[in-house]
């Protein structure tokens, strides 16, 4: 069953996503870590390697001041939307390399309200690009979605179906932020942000934290009744010809996303086909992104999404349940925590302990996918 | 890197609207922020991102457009700064 090099998730913790002005990002991270340690039945002193990520809410390694000054190696990660997944990669690689047998990955963030504020210089662009009003992530998602719908004959209703399912799942999930179900009509009729995307088709920057305890080899089974195997984790950056945020120009295409490369590598390493996936988490910064990622990761063909959505195939009871916790749309996106939220949800689904809607029939194969600026993606396959 | 002359006309490859006023360093025009269209224009060998001076009723993927300037903002010394954009191509322009 298990090999000496296999890494397992043996504990999970999460601070509910949303807004709580009385707490700092670091407060939420501490709670998530303590919950993950308790879930695994271990103490902070047992952790032999740690990695933490936050975009804007502090240096993660300073958490040792709260958790205990054990001298543990603690790597800080700042990797955009792939931050959380990168912490898992760092810890899993360290465990396999023999640094320790028990590790901890944590991600947290607390963002200000409204669209992310970005500096042109940080992305190697001239000030003119932002001053003339073209440097907005929301525009990018809208432009990419607009073209995708056109090329694959998908209607705007499909975008509303994605968001409606997200809020439906979120309404049943105690850790989600947006807990009110919305109808497709309400979503389509909400304020136009950047067509074809409306207000409720976008996630909001939010706050939250999530943590995982990872263990190497057979000892995972001593700690946890149902450890979840990290069958693979692949991280990729963009290659020439990808269509990315903040691009004053693009090659004519076809455009090739790093999500395609990361998903392909994750499935190949795990020896699992996309068709075997029974519960999936996909980056849904907006409804259009989720539609595109469904096909880019190989979970369906390009243009098949609307039919899947209409048939309820992506619902928790469907053939390929997607974002069973409501994803970024219902959870908001605390950048550092978002990827670990995905792991938390998939692990709980595979352990049959889902906090929200449980996928029926004891699913054995889960998948996570994050995608971020400017052209990074990380995917994992989790199994029991 | 060397300069390369691109064609002045192409077709809308994708488009959207900027409805809300962006945060700084965006600089609104002197009359205040008005929603504006942006998109990628297919110039053949490259897709260029630009402001689109095209009315909503007319805007669509595939629309033939031509290079123009659009007002961006008023500088501290009163200079009206313009930026590049594309407008619908008129009959017989190509």
TrEMBL record, chain A:
<dbReference type="InterPro" id="IPR055140">
    <property type="entry name" value="Thiolase_C_2"/>
</dbReference>
<dbReference type="GO" id="GO:0016747">
    <property type="term" value="F:acyltransferase activity, transferring groups other than amino-acyl groups"/>
</dbReference>
<dbReference type="Pfam" id="PF00108">
    <property type="entry name" value="Thiolase_N"/>
</dbReference>
<dbReference type="InterPro" id="IPR016039">
    <property type="entry name" value="Thiolase-like"/>
</dbReference>
<dbReference type="InterPro" id="IPR020616">
    <property type="entry name" value="Thiolase_N"/>
</dbReference>
<protein>
    <submittedName>
        <fullName>Thiolase family protein</fullName>
    </submittedName>
</protein>
<dbReference type="InterPro" id="IPR002155">
    <property type="entry name" value="Thiolase"/>
</dbReference>
<dbReference type="Pfam" id="PF22691">
    <property type="entry name" value="Thiolase_C_1"/>
</dbReference>
<feature type="domain" description="Thiolase N-terminal">
    <location>
        <begin position="7"/>
        <end position="172"/>
    </location>
</feature>
<feature type="domain" description="Thiolase C-terminal">
    <location>
        <begin position="259"/>
        <end position="381"/>
    </location>
</feature>
């Amino acid at each position: 069953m298990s090999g000496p090099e296999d890494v397992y998730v043996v504990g999970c913790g999460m601070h509910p996503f949303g807004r709580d002005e009385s707490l700092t990002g670091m407060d939420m991270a501490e709670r998530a870590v303590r919950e993950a340690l308790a879930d695994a039945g271990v103490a902070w002193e047992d952790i032999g390697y740690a990695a933490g990520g936050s975009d804007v809410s502090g240096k993660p390694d300073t958490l040792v001041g709260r958790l205990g000054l054990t001298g543990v190696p603690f790597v800080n990660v700042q990797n955009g939307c792939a931050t959380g997944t990168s912490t898992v990669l760092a810890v899993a690689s360290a465990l396999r390399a023999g640094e320790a047998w028990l590790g901890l990955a944590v991600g947290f963030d607390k963002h200000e309200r409204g669209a992310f504020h970005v500096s042109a210089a940080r992305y190697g662009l001239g000030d003119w690009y932002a001053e003339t009003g073209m440097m907005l992530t929301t525009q990018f998602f809208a432009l990419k979605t607009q073209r995708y719908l056109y090329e694959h004959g998908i209607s705007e209703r499909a975008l509303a179906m994605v968001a409606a399912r997200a809020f439906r799942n979120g309404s049943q999930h105690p850790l989600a932020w947006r807990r009110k179900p919305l109808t497709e009509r309400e979503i389509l009729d909400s304020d136009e942000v950047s067509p074809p995307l409306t207000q409720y088709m976008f996630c909001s920057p939010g706050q939250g934290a999530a943590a995982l305890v990872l263990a190497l080899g057979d000892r995972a089974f001593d700690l946890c009744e149902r450890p979840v195997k990290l069958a693979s984790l692949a991280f990729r950056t963009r290659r020439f010809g990808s269509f990315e945020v903040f691009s004053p120009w693009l090659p004519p295409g076809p455009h090739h996303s790093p999500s395609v490369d990361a998903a392909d590598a994750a499935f190949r390493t795990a020896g699992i086909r996309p068709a075997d996936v029974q519960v999936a988490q996909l980056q849904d910064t907006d409804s259009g992104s989720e539609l595109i990622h469904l096909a880019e990761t190989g979970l369906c063909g390009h243009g098949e999404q609307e039919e899947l959505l209409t048939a309820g195939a992506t619902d928790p009871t469907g053939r390929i349940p997607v974002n069973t916790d409501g994803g970024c749309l219902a959870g908001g996106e605390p950048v550092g925590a978002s990827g670990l939220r995905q792991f938390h949800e998939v692990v709980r689904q595979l352990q049959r302990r889902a906090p929200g809607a449980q996928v029926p029939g004891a699913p054995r194969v889960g998948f996570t996918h994050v995608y971020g600026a400017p052209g990074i993606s990380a995917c994992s396959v989790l199994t029991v | 890197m060397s300069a390369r002359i691109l064609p002045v006309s192409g077709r809308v490859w994708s488009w959207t609207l900027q409805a809300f006023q962006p945060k700084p360093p965006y600089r609104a025009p002197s009359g205040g922020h008005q929603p504006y269209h942006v998109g990628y224009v297919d110039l053949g060998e490259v897709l260029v991102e630009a402001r689109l001076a095209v009315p909503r009723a007319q805007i669509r993927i595939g629309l033939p457009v031509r290079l123009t300037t659009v007002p961006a903002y008023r500088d501290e010394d009163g200079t009206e700064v313009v930026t590049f954009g594309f407008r619908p191509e008129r009959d017989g322009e190509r």
